[in-house]
Amino acid sequence: MARPSRRLHVVRSWERCLNDFRLNPDGPARPVVLDETELDERCTEKWPLLAIAQCEIENLHEQLSGSGSAVMIVDTDGYVLKYLGDREFSEITRMSGLHAGANWSESVQGTNAMGTCLAERQPVLIHHTEHFFSRNVVLTCAASPIFDAQGELLGVLDVSCASSLAQQHTAVLVNMSAQTIENRLFMDKYRNFYCIRFHSRPEFINTPGEGIIAFDGAGKVIALNRCSRQQFGLKQAIQAGQYSLRDLFEATEDELLAFAERQSIYPTEIRCAQNGRRFYALAQPPSSSNPSRLVSLRQPEAKPKAKRNTIKAPLIDSLEFGDDYMRACIERAKKVINISHLPIIISGETGTGKGLLSKALHPFSDRADKPFISVNCASIPESLIESEFFGYSAGAFTGGSRGGNIGKIQAADGGTLFLDEIGDMPLHLQTALLQVLEDREVIPLGSSTPIPVNIRLISATHQDLGKLVEKRQFREDLLYRLQGLTIQLPPLRERKDRLNLACSFLNENAIKQMSFSKKAEELIQGYVWPGNIRQLRKTIQTARIFARSEVICTSEFPEEIIRNFSPELLNEALAIGDSLEQPFPCTHQAFSPLEQAEKRAIENALRDYSWSVTKAARHLNLSRTTLYRKLKKYGIESPV
């Protein structure tokens, strides 16, 4: 029988397993697994969460690519709804029940990161023998809860691996990713309200640690995200209208509404109404054209102006930073984007920027003032995919909207329809899509009336569609219909502009310009980046958060990246990090969620090892000098 650690959340979990669930650590496995229909039903029920989380799951998986790990989303009952893992790791752990549809609540699997996170409602790291069942001790798992704006638990994000080390850096990344999902859910839910995004440090705006407040045209606060509640010292979610903006900030409603309508890209200083504390903020108006949302108090009779349909997209020429092949790809796309009814296929490895290119092409086209509709064919449950694409008429099926709903194809009428991961589209839907492209009309489910549509079609895939045709997994006639122009994007490792690209990620939305050390530049240029641009961007954003100065060193990069690039560089990177003097904030400063997670991890490690800095540093995979510096930063002192 494994001995549990002295960390309190692990102790509490073992007590629940022994006393409440009557589990035996060495007992036989009794897995609880959903069948395909049950899993599909749960995925449908959690579709809003899964749709928004999908991108972050992919980002996290790509950032950890090659480390022997898996990323999962678990619902509140402990069922794994989404699983994305390295092939070798997945084959090994599937026998342990680590796969989609399996239940990992404490009552079934004992102490584990997913189940214990659900029970504790806080981020947890469960390492090796901290797992209750002996069959799970090979795993190291980090999990973080996902809450809605009302404080309701929606699910858990987890990364599991077979590392021999407690993956503290991974735990921090999981916490950041969970907060990012929360923020995206918040922005999606309150998109028809004004929003202020703020932080005490301007470089933390548009990061997972930012505060977000949704408010209406009367200045009433509708909701706050978790970080903003922490900034204002609010322990619980608020009721809509419980506070006004004047209760939170030293500004009038009209000033804040005008601030939001300006949509400035530069953070503005704003003061806390309670204590005068300084924040930096960006604001935006509602995305809806509903007059009740858009009209300010000063102009009650004014009618909202019709807004041109725009998307947040990069300029087409800003997608290359000096790579000749990438420039040629962009020039080819620009030449055909306005040729009517000529579809485009963008192919390339995952993370190479297929979605970015499609978004950049739309504003460059003659359809720029029309909708751009993006659909990920791999992320929609099969039970919903037809209604998502084609829409449905009133009364088409139980549970649908009373007035029916238009589908993605009809929503893109006059504009651009982007089908991401088209290689994952089910065969029966391929047949229906081919019919739409041939007839240029769509028939909603439950209706017999065709609706004419005029769309520009851009598709993307990381798969070889020709090989899928050979395997009878993709229709040959549809492939011919899609092949107007094929653009093959290069993987990041083959691009000559990697460093320029990294510099652009480093300084986007930055108040102060930052740069890389010579060693960091060598790492960026020499690492293979299996997750491509997406992995690079996430890595640089994380390094910026960890940065001690305006120069990013190798010590700010994830250790698995440094180790895979050059094992010898790992010790050197830690040494470089130790030699830097960091201007620490005062201990009374409100720390970001990322810093709070790191502080908790350090305190837990010190308690586990009776405040032995040497042992705690080894457990956290830090040098003693680095740990001493962090103790000073967080004001952590020994109780003896």
The side-by-side strand order for the widest beta sheet comes to: 2-1-5-4-3
Under CATH, the topology of the largest domain can be stated as Beta-Lactamase
Number of H/I helices: 26
Helix content: 40-55%
Strand content: 5-15%
How would you classify the helix and strand content by structural class?
Answer: alpha/beta
Distance between the termini: 32 Å
Radius of gyration using CA atoms only = 25 Å
Just name the CATH architecture of the largest domain.
2-Layer Sandwich
Number of strands: 21
Number of individual domains: 4
The first-level CATH class of the largest domain is given as Alpha Beta
Report the mean per-residue pLDDT as an integer.
83
Biggest pleated sheet: 5 strands, antiparallel
Low-pLDDT ranges: 289-313, 576-590
Shape: globular
CATH superfamily of the largest domain: GAF domain
Comma- or semicolon-separated keywords:
40% helix, five-stranded antiparallel sheet, alpha/beta, Beta-Lactamase, 26 helices, 640 residues, 15% strand, Rossmann fold, single chain
